[in-house]
Design brief:
Elements (H helix, E strand, L loop, with lengths): L2 H12 L4 H4 L2 E6 L3 E7 L13 E6 L2 E8 L2 E7 L3 H16 L2
Antiparallel strand pairs: 1-2, 2-5, 3-4, 4-5
Helix pairs in contact: 1-3
Length: 99
């Protein structure tokens, strides 16, 4: 399953009639240019789970940084790394879920 389809499924699994009214996923652009992904973890299996900050800098045009703060996953990356950011989130969720 591709990463975007997986994220759609993860979102649907967490929609319970309440969660989606207060939580969700944000995909924003940065002005450097790049991406910012913000995913609410409250009420999910990832809530309060440990995530080690992840940083990968290949060049000024190829980098990502991911962290969890205040029950939110934040992924930042250069313009060609949107999928990589989502894959970092996906791999962490799989670890948390025990897959």
């Amino acid at each position: 399953m591709n990463t975007l389809k997986w994220l759609e499924n993860w979102f649907v699994q967490n929609c319970d009639g309440e969660w989606e009214h207060h939580n969700g996923i944000k995909v924003l652009t940065l002005d450097n240019p790049g991406w910012l992904i913000e995913i609410d973890l409250e009420g999910t299996v990832c809530e309060e789970k440990f995530f080690k900050d992840f940083k990968l800098e290949k060049s000024d045009e190829d980098w990502i940084f991911c962290k969890v703060r205040d029950n939110k996953f934040f992924g930042y990356g250069s313009v060609n790394n949107l999928t990589v950011i989502l894959e970092v989130f996906r791999n962490w969720v799989k670890l948390v879920e025990g897959f």
